[in-house]
Amino acid sequence: IPGLGDYTCSASVAVGRAVWTAGHCLYSPDIGWHTNMIFVPAYKNGRAPYGVFTVNEMSVLNGWANSPEPFANWAWAYDLGMASVLDNNGMAISEWVGNLGAIWGVAAKQHWHANGYPNNIGNLRYLIVCEGSLSSRWDLPGPNPVGMGCDMGGGSSGGPWWIKHNPYTAGPFNLVNSVVSARGPNINRTKEVFGPYFGNGAKNLYEWGAQQ
Asked: DSSP assignment, residue 88?
């Protein structure tokens, strides 16, 4: 992040050359776009089994980019972004590793699996999964973020929340429906994490990603 140094986030392959992540992983209000970013699919303890992909273009929701100050409270409702990555040996990221599905505009009450690389579990080196259902909504202007039971910390931001869990199966399964975003309004609830509700903004980002 310009002026602040290096950082780590999580992401998942969405479509073509594009990956889902959190808005705050790509853009900081009053600072601008982040730089020198790479995506390492299936990273594990220093190993990159499918190579390293350089981020090329980025897009975030206007509600996040237009926040009047860094991390204004209401902006967390729009903490969603997508990045496109350059090909590796002439192949798009989805050709290397496949991609998850996606769904938006459905009921907020869901049961999710959430993935990420948190610093408090595995020291950013291992992919961790949380499993839980809707615990609460964060009452903010705009689409209220959804909350689930999960204790992943920093580094997991941007990791996918997916529904209809059915690994190794093609078809209408494994649908990204949010991403790891923030702790929410009560810092004492350390085992709850929030993510943006997937509505029209998520649909627009997906369509942007499909064109990359």
From this structure: B
Phi then psi for residue 160, to 5 deg, are -75, 145
Q: In whole angstroms, what separates CA 142 from the centre of its chain? A: 19
In one-letter notation, the amino acid at residue 202 is A
Measured between its terminal Cα atoms, the distance across the chain in Å is 24
Q: What is the pTM of this model?
A: 0.95
Q: Going by C-beta distance under 8 Å and a sequence separation of 6 or more, which residues neighbour residue 134?
A: 108, 109, 110, 111, 146, 147, 148
CA–CA dist 20, 1 (Å, integer): 18
Cβ–Cβ under 8 Å, residues 158 and 180: yes
pLDDT at res. 190: 77
- Helices and strands in the chain: count of H runs, count of E runs: 3, 14
pLDDT beneath 50: ranges in the chain: none
